[in-house]
Amino acid sequence: MIFFVNGTIGMGNSGVEHAEFYRGKVLTQAGLPFRYLFYRLNRDLQAPMKRWGLANDQVINMWEYFTLGEDYLKHGVQTFYEHSTKLVIDSTNTHRKRDTYTVSGLHVIDHMIKHPDKHKKTNILMVGSNHVELFNMNTGLKMADFQFYDDPHRKVIIRNIHLYHQAGGRHLFFSNGMQLIRYFFQRLNIAYHEKNVYMIDRGIDPEVALFAMHSDKLKVIDVIHADQLNNRKDPRYPLFNNYNEYLLTHLDQVDKMVVATERQRQDMLVDFPDRGDQIVTIPVGGVRDNPQIDPNKQPGDPIKFITASRLAIEKHVDFIVKALVKLHDEDGVNLTLDIYGAGEEEKRIKTAIEDGHAGDYIHVKGLSAELEKLYPQYDAYISGSYSEGFGLTYIEAMNAGLPIVTFNARFGAQELVDEGQNGFLADFNRTDADYSVEQLHQALKRFMAANYHDLVAHTKAKVERYQDHVIAEDWRKLIDAL
Fold first, then answer.
1. pLDDT by residue (tens digit) across 124-140?
2. Burial class (CB within 10 angstroms; exposed 0-12, middle 13-18, buried 19+) of 31
């Protein structure tokens, strides 16, 4: 069995989760069995499963297993309930207790406390869950409880975990989450006793647990979704991304590392020149086989731009707004921009729209699970990200024949966009926002001056390598080699 290891999923996700969804699609095409494996407690897991098309028997959640029992590992949830929540609120209007009844049949009780914020200097008290109990709604039995602890360095972690009525009727205790995750993987290997392949998409804890269990029957693949490098100022001591540092200092305990672009693979070989066979390039996104791109498509009037991402600070969606306002006001281009996504930067983006007096042609559209159907309605895709390990939204837009305008970022933009051929790359400066906005504006001007027919033709040629059947075969070859 192949397991995709991640914390959880939500109604809105990052590129990591969408890479998993796409991998599930092509592994199905390749006839390879897999499960989505989530190790964090999600009090409403069935809703995002439904939104993103994940079947009941494709998903294993660690806490659902500990609560629902052994049959769940092979068959998923068997009895479904209505989701509901009840709150106990004290006289100071503070939440003190929350009962959540999940669709999957978990009764989750969160005992809430007031506490200071250990990570910010503030006099405001926080309210959060301190002690959690889990009950099986089918039997009424208490199956687990644990405590949250706000660590000054690791932030919120779990500890003092009790599991009740487990396999063989056992009551088990784990002092920390690492021990618990390791036990969870041990139970999985008993239930799925053939050779198992764990593809770790997110989380250092699963790496620590699985690396210690590595064997002929347990293979580990680490999927790197972002730039692995922080800087290489001293080539002898490269500074790695925090999320990849444990992996890159324990390479002897992982079978393969998958990166999304050949550029990133070559960059990793700078620091690990003897690991060429261990580092494999497989795109984390692709296009449907034989994509139907209209070679005669012409831009509309107004020309319609689209961007789609988490509305996070590192995506610089406000830079996109400012660059397009320049294109509209200074160059007289009749245009629209639709922004799809949600996140903490929405207020900043809307402020940029207001400041640019652009509310009649730039709109924040919210989340959408139907982007593939929406892309053909637009003329070009624009991104403001300084770093994309691959750029799933780039390839999704290219699938509809859209040229790309983005920053010249490692690694996805440089691999997917050929300057002047199927898009345009803008220089950027991490410490000078005005410079970056102006460079994006200049890239947009180059796009407007280009032959749109040629851009679409080159886009169609570019996506051939990224067709589903090609990537499905890449994964098949990797799994067979293990």
1. 777 777 899 999 999 99
2. exposed
